[in-house]
Design brief:
The complex is a heterodimer. By secondary structure, chain A is mainly beta. Chain A is 10% helix and 49% strand. Chain A has 6 helices and 24 strands. In chain A, a hairpin with a 3-residue loop joins strand 10 and strand 11 (266-276). By secondary structure, chain B is of the alpha+beta class. Chain B has a 17-stranded mixed β-sheet that branches. Chain B has a two-stranded antiparallel ribbon with strand order 3-4. The relative contact order of chain B is 0.17. Chain B has 5 helices and 19 strands. Chains A and B meet through strand 2, strand 7, strand 8, strand 10 and strand 14 of A and strand 6, strand 10, strand 19 and helix 5 of B.
Chain lengths: 493, 433
């Protein structure tokens, strides 16, 4: 019956799109204040490298690892237009419907994953959600958005730095999905107030948000064992318990940001907020009442972040310079001897060690004409240098990822660096977009993602290759056996 | 009896004179195509005349039933007297007061009503006038349909955008607005549709002192407001044949001192208008002046005729009326060696300071694109309020056999109640997705 429901919904949407036969939003009134818009998307990904190490199940080259079907429908309505006396009020509702078919008609290894764990996988493979739902209110210098929404602060692409307010869902496509598709909207209230010019600062704006913690917290979900985008790990031999934050006000996500423009050129902001770490902290709990005496406890911890950003136009190089730095207070880290003492023969419950940490980024955005490549559109280049630094580094620190070659855990360095480069342009009146993304870790690993997207409105087709080279114990290299080729078709309305 | 006959004859004569006079003022149009294209010789840029010769363009040539130089906002008409000799340009091509040598706090209407062909700063002054003509219309919220068309493919697709523009100069009611950042205007472009582009937005702050524009972009995929380089203003706008700098009343929307300007001379060309009559504007409850286009069946596009035999290229507006107007011919050359265009030739009305044509050459000097406008001059029923609306623009990329048209006839709303907060960083985030 549910399958019929999905089928009916999909068919209705498709008919709606074909009926209109174009890519426009469907306006429900003459003034265009009420409209329905959305997309239906299907994506197939094929694994392009043989499974190694702890990756499970074993997936040969060419096997399908993803057949994701996604529909998003938005309803937008402007309730009141702003005038000198009246506020502007509008709302936005987005429904999201997701179905992953690889467990039902994919390769045998993924059908077996479902058969081995049907309750979890049947729940995992589909999703029907009120994805976004918020009301906007603007009057004079005030702006409020109340409801289920995304909020992103900071200046970075590819890797998150200060952009850690919403949890990230890495379960259905991992790092190979667009960041925005992975953000999980939260019920929150956010408000901004424009102070105008204050001293040397123009457009001085204060912004605050709160996602109350007393009514349950949304956290970044974990990939079930045996699914294609789960991190490589051995199957747990002990009971695994996941602990979400307690429902108290103290566990709210909340924060404040001040931003403005200095000297008519320098955009600056400072921010402080509390969030919940996307990666739960793992400990082994020694409990004689349990079968086997030991359980693995995964706990989502809160974290305080203080940061600042700056960006400005540098006329000599005709580029935008971006910078961002954030201090992460008492970030949970992983020290096997402390988190998992039972592994070292110490039969007591592990603890979650914490330490302060600095992350920063310097970036350069440069658009340039390379007319021998493209004489109608600029080539856009976004370069970023990321670094992480632990001032109180413990040389036992590791990533909570098992190292297949040693049987231990992958080492966490005191300094970590990465360089990213995104380059793209458009051809054929903006309907053909080639892009290449590099993420390079100088310790010896690189991810590269060439892609090309062509639209025949309302249809959009995209093909992308996700390649990874380098050492498997270095950041992006951990996923080097997960290289994939993805093909995606989208229809928009 | 004889006396009555004389009175009768006199009345008849008066009626006849009035009849002739009114018929003389009434608009008359005729169609000019490849059969009689010579009529338009020297009245169009040469490359555009070729379209008439080839049948790609059929021109409805005629007159208007009003004088466009008189249908302008009252503060513009007043400034044509009040601003004579009042302003000049400094070395950065910023407008300064002749009396004080300082940038004025506010300029009403157009700054340079008395441009002379012999003035070396004359062409830059005319370009300033075109920017101020845009500002003189007041805060604008216009829903634009950006249409993509190919010569063979016809209509391809559309992008719908909301265009918000708030002037701090020229528009008399803006005189009382606080302008601490000394802006000439601020604008926002927000894509509403299709879904894959919806939410993409750009904001520009244009300074009055010649400083580089502040550009911000909002990319829904990263959900953040980003600074953008001013060089991006010559990049293709949403992949179209336009650049952001093309979108203004004179064919150039960048900072005046980014270009060197030269008079090529004075001339007469035909310019396009949406209708032979003024277009009715009415004020809604928000105080906006709304251009009433409903029920007029205008504009009529060639592509909608499905390429009938002898029809024009798909991007032409068949219903437009083309009128002979006196123009300045101005050449602009970018100082930035990386600017996408080479020289550009603008044809600007000497009386209204509105552009009719722009011919664009590439950096090697070869002809590339042509841009032209369709003007709608709005007037309320009492003829107390006038506005000049750049209702449709078309740009043809001759090499690509492709065109992009912007049509703003569906919801053109001038004097919109936009406050400065909308153009702040916080306000920009609020209009984004």
């Amino acid at each position: 019956m549910k399958a019929f429901g999905h089928c009916f919904m999909g068919t209705t949407l498709l008919l709606l799109v074909l009926m209109y036969g174009n890519a426009f939003a469907i306006s429900l009134d003459d003034e265009g204040t009420l409209e329905i818009t959305g997309k239906i998307q299907s994506r197939i990904s094929l694994r392009m490298s043989d499974s190694e190490g702890y990756t499970s199940p074993d997936t040969p080259v060419g096997h399908m690892v993803q057949q994701r079907n996604l529909a998003q429908i938005e309803l937008n309505q402007l309730l009141l237009r702003q005038s000198q006396d009246t506020p502007e009020v509008k709302y936005h509702i987005k429904g999201r419907f997701l179905y992953e078919g690889v467990y039902d008609y994919g390769p045998d290894e993924y059908q077996e994953t479902r058969e081995n764990n049907p309750d979890v996988i049947d729940e995992f493979k589909k999703d029907e959600d009120l994805w976004e739902c918020y009301l906007d209110y603007s009057k004079g210098p005030w702006f409020f958005r109340v409801g289920k929404q995304n909020l992103s602060w900071g200046e970075t692409d590819v890797y998150q730095l200060m952009d850690r307010i919403n949890p990230i869902d890495n379960t259905f496509g991992g790092a190979f999905e667009d960041l925005d598709d992975r953000r999980i909207p939260l019920w929150m209230m956010r408000g901004t107030y424009n102070f105008g010019n204050v001293g040397p600062v123009s457009s001085f704006t204060a912004e605050g948000f709160i996602n109350p913690g007393w009514s349950g917290q949304e956290v970044a979900p974990l990939s079930p064992y045996g699914t294609p985008y789960a991190y490589p790990s051995s199957a747990s031999s002990v009971l695994v318990r996941v602990h979400e934050p307690e429902e108290t006000f103290q566990n709210s996500r909340m924060g404040i940001r001040l931003q403005g423009v200095l000297a008519d050129n320098f955009n600056v902001s400072i921010a402080h907020y509390q969030t919940i770490c996307d990666t739960p902290s793992a400990i082994l709990t020694f409990d004689p009442t349990l079968t086997g005496y030991v359980a693995q406890d995964l706990t989502y911890e809160t974290e305080q972040v203080t940061g600042a950003t700056a960006s400005f136009y540098e006329s000599h190089i005709d580029a935008i310079v971006r910078a961002e730095a954030a201090w992460f207070w008492d970030e949970p880290v992983f020290i096997p001897e402390v988190n998992l003492p039972a592994l070292f023969g110490v039969y007591e419950t592990g603890k979650i060690p914490t330490t302060n940490m600095l992350r920063y980024m310097v970036g350069l955005d440069k658009s340039l004409w390379m007319r021998f490549i493209n004489d109608t559109s600029m080539i856009n280049c976004y370069f970023q240098y990321f670094a992480e630094y632990y001032p109180d580094y413990d040389d036992r620190q590791c990533l909570a990822v098992e190292d297949y070659s040693t049987g231990g855990f992958i080492e966490q360095k005191r300094y970590e660096q990465k360089v990213t480069l995104i380059t793209s342009t458009t051809y054929m009146s903006g309907t053909l977009t080639p892009q290449i993304v590099f993420a390079y870790d100088p310790r010896g690993a690189m991810m590269y993602i060439p892609s090309i997207e062509k639209s025949f409105h309302p249809w959009i087709f995209k093909i992308a290759y996700y390649g990874i080279v380098g050492d498997e114990d270095v950041s992006v290299g951990i996923l080097k056996d997960r290289q994939q080729l993805s093909m995606q078709a989208t229809v928009v309305f | 009896m004889k006396r009555y006959r004389i009175i009768e004859m006199s009345c008849l004569a008066i009626v006849m004179v009035l009849f002739l006079a009114t018929n003389g003022l009434a608009a008359k149009t005729e169609y000019i195509d490849k059969a009689n294209w010579e009529t338009l010789k020297d009245l169009m840029p040469e490359n555009s005349l070729k379209w008439v010769k080839s049948g790609d363009m059929v021109v409805r040539y005629g007159t208007l039933d009003y004088d466009p130089a008189k249908v302008m906002p009252e503060w513009v008409l007043e400034s044509k007297q009040e601003n004579i000799g009042k302003y000049k340009l400094d070395k950065n091509k910023a407008i300064i007061e002749v009396a004080t040598g300082k940038i004025p706090k506010f300029i009403k209407g157009i700054p340079f009503p008395d441009v002379k062909l012999t003035d070396p700063d004359g062409p830059a002054k005319v370009m300033w006038n075109t920017l101020y003509m845009r500002d003189a219309g007041g805060s604008l919220h216009n829903e634009l349909e950006v249409k993509f068309m190919g010569r063979k493919t016809g209509y391809e697709r559309s992008i719908w955008v909301d265009w918000y523009s708030k002037p701090y100069d020229a528009f008399e009611p803006a005189r009382s607005e606080a302008n601490p950042d000394d802006l000439e205007f601020a604008s926002q472009i927000v894509v509403r549709s299709p879904f894959d582009m919806a939410g993409t937005a750009m904001m520009t702050w244009r300074y009055r002192n010649g400083k580089e524009d502040m550009l911000y972009g909002y990319v829904p995929a990263i959900r953040r407001v980003r600074r953008m380089t001013p060089a991006a203003r010559s990049d293709a706008l949403f992949g179209s044949d336009y650049s952001q700098d093309d979108a203004s009343y004179g064919g150039y929307d960048g900072a005046i001192n980014y270009f060197t300007w030269k008079f090529m001379g004075e001339s007469e060309v035909i310019g396009a208008f949406v209708d032979t009559k003024t277009n009715l504007i009415t004020q809604n409850k928000l105080g906006q002046w709304v251009l009433q286009m409903k029920g007029k069946d205008l504009p009529q596009w060639s592509y909608e005729k499905k390429r009938e035999k002898n029809s024009a290229a798909p991007w032409f507006v068949d219903s437009a009326v083309w009128v002979k107007r006196p123009v300045w011919v101005i050449e602009g050359k970018p100082k930035d060696p990386y600017y996408n265009y080479g020289r550009q030739i603008m044809y600007i009305d000497k009386e209204t300071n509105l552009g009719y044509w722009k011919v664009i050459y590439d950096r090697t000097g070869n002809y590339w694109k042509t841009l032209w406008y369709h003007w709608a001059n709005g007037q309320d029923a009492g003829k107390a309020m006038n506005l000049n609306a750049m209702l449709i623009t078309t740009i043809v990329d001759e090499r690509a056999n492709h065109a992009t048209c912007q049509e703003g006839s569906k919801n053109y709303r001038a004097n919109s109640p936009l406050n400065s907060n909308q153009f702040s960083l916080g306000g920009f985030t609020a209009v984004c997705k």
